Amino acid sequence: MFVAISTLQVPEEAAKELEERFLNRSRKVDGYEGFIRLRLLRRRGSHTQYAFVTEWASQAAFQAYMKSHDYGDAHAKVPPEFDAVIENLGLAVYDAVVDSARGE
User: Does a structural domain hold residue 100?
Assistant: First the structure.
């Protein structure tokens, strides 16, 4: 399994909107080949820092989605004024080596 984690920072007044946008997302990624799960995590004790976590069957599946029209369409729907307040603090990628969901 391949995991991608983006760390996001937003102003406090934009936090609720970020959560609502993820909750009401298009969900096109949900049916994308190799997609397993998406989570938006809010850091404990913070109303402004989030981890956006996606899990994929492989790095190739993740990369294919990132190059897809569905990815472009989903991000094109974010209003520029909202996109401007989201600070991407970085992307980290991991390979799952032990997974309790697989009985490990």
Answer: no
pLDDT in tens, 26-40: 788 898 999 999 999
**What is the number of structural domains in the chain?**
1
CA of residue 103 relative to chain centroid, distance:
25
What residue numbers bound the domain in which 62 lies?
2-91
**Structure-token pair, residue 22:** 């993820």
What is the mean pLDDT for each group of 10 consecutive residues in the chain (104 residues)? 96 93 86 94 94 96 92 81 89 92 80
User: DSSP for 19-69?
Assistant: HHHHHT---GGGGSTTEEEEEEEEPTT-SSEEEEEEEES-HHHHHHHHTSH
Residue 49 counted as domain residue: yes
Distance CA 93, CA 3 (A): 6
97 lies in some domain: no
Q: What's the whole-model pTM score?
A: 0.86
